[in-house]
Design a protein that fits this description.
Largest sheet: none
GO molecular function, one term: phosphate transmembrane transporter activity
Strand content: under 5%
Family: Belongs to the mitochondrial carrier (TC 2.A.29) family.
Number of strands: 0
Solcar repeats: 23-107, 120-205, 221-305
Oligomer: single chain
Keywords: Membrane, Mitochondrion, Mitochondrion inner membrane, Repeat, Transmembrane, Transmembrane helix, Transport
Shape: globular
Order of helices and strands: HHHHHHHHHHH
Structural class: mainly alpha
CATH architecture: Alpha/alpha barrel
Subcellular location: Mitochondrion inner membrane
Radius of gyration: 22 Å
């Protein structure tokens, strides 16, 4: 016998997470993990060939030739060399970057009146993203060092990131895991400042030109705006951060024992010149544009799923 409507269980209401509460920042931190770890590790084959061509432009004729050569010589699995270090490193970085950005953005805005904060919102976005990335790179750097060494050393330097960690610490000490921190900051901080600030302003411009205000749009439509804004921001990020990206790859693979960062950078630059800083830019535009768009798609989808507003005005 069917139950009466009055006896049907009432739907359980999802508890609302208060904005800017510890739970809110924890949720944004988890969203950063979900957005960054899987997306960065998914494009490991692109990153592998890009890094190897940055270190040795003559190694492969093209990206396609690189993948064909790797598969032919070492098997399909080897195109994912560096996958583990990438996943762990960028999961940690994503947690600090997204959670930290939300925290610093609100903190810096709270120091000003609402009118002043709105007028200087671009400076707030820049400061919040730089602060978050500065911290995030401390967690990313050891895994990035292992990944680059694993990808650019032939045969590969280590079997996995745990093996790589042990080898670097045994040979160079803990400092060996952080020898690329300064160039990583030089690459990632401008990248993240561009990523978050351009995203916020691009999304703001998109909403200003749509027939409905954001509050009257469906969550699906808002997430679509995030995806478009993320891709456009990603193209800008790729160009801004590419020279430092090349130098990170070079320093991690070619810095000599006892050599200072400035000496290594100067020596490497004298070999590759200004043109060499732009090796691999087209593939990085595709990689970073795709990464950034899907990260904002995943991050804002996650926020929407747990009942938080999507990013941007």
């Amino acid at each position: 016998m069917s139950s009466s409507p009055s006896s049907a269980p009432a739907p359980v209401a999802r508890r609302q997470i208060p904005l800017f509460s510890p739970e809110y920042y924890a949720a944004c931190t988890l969203g950063g993990v979900v957005a960054c770890g899987p997306t960065h590790s998914a494009v490991t084959p692109l990153d592998l060939v890009k890094c190897r061509r940055q270190v040795d432009p003559a190694l492969y004729k093209s990206n396609l030739d690189g993948w064909r050569t790797i598969v032919r010589n070492d098997g399909l699995r080897k195109v994912f060399t560096g996958f583990g270090a990438t996943f762990v490193g960028y999961s940690l970085q994503g947690a600090c970057k997204y959670g930290g950005y939300e925290f610093f953005k609100h903190t810096y805005s709270s120091l000003l009146s609402p009118e002043t904060a709105h007028r200087h919102r671009t400076l707030i976005y820049l400061g919040a993203s730089a602060s978050a990335e500065f911290i995030a790179d401390v967690f990313l750097c050891p895994l990035e060092a292992i990944k680059v060494k694993q990808q650019t050393t032939l045969p590969p330097f280590c079997r996995n990131f745990v093996d790589g960690w042990r080898k670097i610490v045994a040979n160079e000490g803990v400092a060996g895991l952080y020898k690329g921190l300064t160039p990583l900051w030089c690459r990632q901080i401008p990248y993240t400042m561009c990523k978050f600030t351009s995203f916020e302003r691009i999304v703001e411009a998109i909403y200003a030109r749509l027939p409905k205000p954001k509050e009257q749009m469906t969550q699906m439509a808002q997430i679509g705006v995030s995806f478009v804004g993320g891709y456009l921001a990603g193209i800008l990020c790729a160009v801004v951060s590419h020279p430092a990206d090349v130098m990170v790859s070079k320093v991690n693979s070619d810095r000599k024992a006892g050599e200072s960062m400035m000496a290594a950078t100067s020596r490497i630059y004298s070999k590759i010149g200004f043109a060499g800083l732009w090796n691999g830019l087209p593939v990085r535009i595709v990689m970073i544009g795709t990464l950034t768009s899907f990260q904002w798609l995943i991050y804002d989808s996650f926020k929407a799923y747990i009942g938080l507003p999507t990013t941007g005005h």
